[in-house]
Each structure stands twice: as C-alpha cells, then as structure tokens.
Amino acid sequence: MNDADASANIARIVQSPSYRVAxxxxxxMTGPDLRPVRMELELLKPELYLRKxxxxxxxxxxxxxxxxxxxxxxTRLDQAWRALAxxxxxxxxxxxxxxxxxxxxxxxxxxKAREFGRLVSKACQPDGPYDYVVTTGGGPGIxxxxxxxxxxxxxxxxxxxxxxxxxxxxxxxxxxxxxFQFHYFAMRKLHFLLRAKALVxxxxxxxxxxxxxxxxxxxxTGRMQKLPVILFGxxxxxxxxxxxxxxxxxxxxxxxxxxxxxxxxxxxxxxMIRRFYAAKxxxxxx
Length: 286
Known about the structure:
β2, α7 (about 140-150) and β3 (about 155-160) form a beta-alpha-beta unit. Strands 4-3-2-1-5-6-7 form a 7-stranded parallel sheet, sandwiched between helices. The protein has 2 domains: about 25-70 and about 105-285, Rossmann fold, CATH 3.40.50.450; about 70-105, no CATH class. The chain is about 55% helix and about 10% strand. It is globular, with a radius of gyration of 24 Å. By secondary structure, it is α/β, with parallel strands linked by helices. The chain starts with a helix and ends with a helix. The longest helix has 20 residues, at about 265-285. It has helices at about 5-15, 25-30, 35-50, 70-85, 90-105, 110-125, 140-150, 185-195, 205-220, 235-240, 245-250, 265-285; strands at about 60, 135, 155-160, 180, 195-200, 230, 260-265.
C-alpha cells in the first residue's frame, strides 16, 4: 500500500461508525439492541441526582392533567359555551361543553392539591437531607398544583416527565435540577415508588388509574414498602371504582380494602400520613 492509499484508508477508518467511541455513538445507543443499557441509564440518572440533592423520601401525587385551576377551567367553559352558541345542534360541541362544566366542578381539587403540596413541604423541608419531597409526573393539572404548592413554600419538588407522541412540557414549578424526562414508563413508575412514603391520588383518568392500581398490586402482594395510599375525593373514587363490590365478589380479600384511605382536605390527608408513621414508630419500639 502506498502512502496515498494508506492516507485514504485511514480517512475511511476514522469516518466509520465502528470507530466512534461507544457512548458517543448515537446510532448504537438508540438501536434496539441497546434497550437494556438505556433502561439502566434511566434508572441510574435520577438516582444520582436525587442522591446529590440529599432526597431521602418522597410523597407522590397523582391526578388528572385536565383538572386545572378554577379560573382557567371557567375560561375553558366560557369558550365551549361560545363555540356551542355558534352551532347549538353540534353534538360534539354539546359534549365538549358538558365535559367543561364537569371539570369546573372538579377544579377545586387543583386548589386542594396545591394546598397539600404547600402543607407537606412547609412541614418537612427546613433543611437537608430532605424527606417527604413532593413528587409528581411533572405535567399540568393536578401535577402542576402539587409542585406549585411546594414552590409556594420555597421547597424542593420533583417532576418525572415522560416523552409522549404529543409532547408534554414540564410545569414551571418543579425544582429545575429535579425534573427528569423518561422514555420508558416502567422506569418512571419505579422512580415514583422507590422512595415513596405515601401516595396521594386525586381524581384522574386512565393514567392515574394505571399508577394507582400498579401501586395497589405491589402493596397487595407485599412487593413494596408499606405506605398509606390516599384517594382524594371520595365521591369521585367511589363512583369510578366500586372497591367494595370487588371484595363482595371475592376477587380481592376484605383486608385488601384496608390499603385504601379517603380524604377530602389537605389537612386530613397530611394527618393520615403522620398517624401512619407515628403508629409505625410506636410498633417498632414495642
């Protein structure tokens, strides 16, 4: 090989994908064979940040993206009414207006989620290391409200955002260094529960139900730490899921219903969490 051929071949070598340093090889890292590595990274990255910020435990708040603050909900309803007035017989517009009316009725839970986030954060975050840090899915609605309550208290809060086909932006109240974006729902769910000291579940839809029943199954089977699961809004939840019916039919044990607690105010929910851990500490000392 002459010098010109050697130089040309070296140029081809250094341009080849095989010559790239592995961790800088985007094509390699995003390929199907590297899925286990990507999942491990999604497990590890938040873990490292949470350790750095001395986050020891969390309180996780779930709930609907559609339950927004009352003034915004009323504005959305006004827009739906105006659209309906333009075409009163349009069934889709009728349906949209009816749903907007319901969401105005439920919008008070935005304020309650915000108050809960503020109450917990004010009580538990004077200095690090930090316990009971409010953690949400990082999106709008109830998630925003809980993060906003922590922000009102001048406290840290966490957002575990997820990449979706329709891009979901993080809400502006999350502590910047504690907002994470996930690709895999499984890794996101794991981080919801790893440090959780309580799950507080506000009215929501499929996503909220998925997160609730995932946690209930793990608690029922003893595969995660004992913690209070609090359903905010008894009227909503008892209509969405007939838990007593499940027990009456024998598909869950009667004692499985003890996994559920119901609250309707921030103070009530926070008192349940404090009683749970006071009883746990008393039991441990006996």
